[in-house]
Amino acid sequence: MRIAILGHVRQRIAQPFAGGMEAHCWQLTAGLQARGHDVTLFAAGDSDPRFRIDPVVPEHYERVFPWAEHRGSAPLIAHLDAGYAAACDRIAAGGFDVVHNNSLHRFPIEPRRTAVTPTVTSLHVPPYDALHWFVRASATPGHRLTVTSAPQLAAWWPEGAPAEASVLHNGIDPAAWPFVRQGDGSAVWCGRVTPNKGTHCAVQAARAAGVPLTLFGPIEDPDYWAAEVEPLLGPDVRYGGHLAGDALAAELGRASVFLFTPCWDEPFGLVAAEAMACGLPVAAFDAGAAREVIGEAGAFAPAGDVAGLAEAIRVALSLPRAASRQRVERLFTRDRWLDRCEALYRDASDARALAA
């Protein structure tokens, strides 16, 4: 198939990934190419050059608009609207069989556009005002909507989801996250360092449990880092930087427990699946999709309960590492995910053809 993948452009689609959305888009592009599809990635122009890039904007917008809070910024909105309008026009004229939309922008889901090119839209966030009502009005024969977990599906459609919407769990390549049979007794946390990821909670809980901790990931919110996280660093808690896949996998594998601390309704939690593939049991806040992803491979504490998370760390350390790997191999592999994507592409294409 000729497939257009339309990405979010806040960050580059390249390693080291800024977050799960960037990882998802990169893995989708690489995986579909490996299966023989003709793929064009519509994304920031400074994304991974190994892909065929059709730039939505010349470079990711954090480079052009470098501030943490973007909501309501008229210059940024105009910049993105112009880029996505032109990209959607190129897709419509490009003879693509399907577009997989990861953009979180309203233009690609307009019915006049999905009537031209069958579209699968993957929603990676809970509902928010700028997109919510556009999504709810976008269910058409040639448009399929996916979310990453059952709680996220209920959040978008509390009255019941339409037939065009379904859960599509994220997937990872288990070979990229090698299983390690034994850890060194330490804990590890990774993700975007920002308040809603709960980095400071992970530090406090690890210290209360008496377990050394290493943090990995991009410092997205420097003020939060300086005020809430950096003062907590010490001999038992260190920051290991922002690492690309192979290096991060090695760091995860040598630890004994992964800390997952969402302080929002986390739609999936790709980092937890990656750690589980390496054999780590997880100590987690029970928020968003945490329990759906982690299941029997972890121990849980109420969201925001640091003392409870410290106890969950102690419990998780006693869980078998093989169970974590087995859960990923059963539910969250890249092949399983890509099989479902291809089925959705066929479904959207067939439905559009019947409606024509």
From TrEMBL:
GO-annotated molecular function: glycosyltransferase activity
Segments forming domain Glycosyltransferase subfamily 4-like N-terminal: 19-175
Class of this enzyme: transferase
Species in which this protein is naturally found: Sphingomonas liriopis
Keywords noted in UniProt: Glycosyltransferase, Transferase
EC code: 2.4.-.-
This protein's record includes keyword Glycosyltransferase: yes
One Pfam family linked to the record: Glyco_transf_4
Protein name: Glycosyltransferase
Family annotation (InterPro entries): Glyco_trans_4-like_N (IPR028098)
Tagged with keyword Transmembrane: no
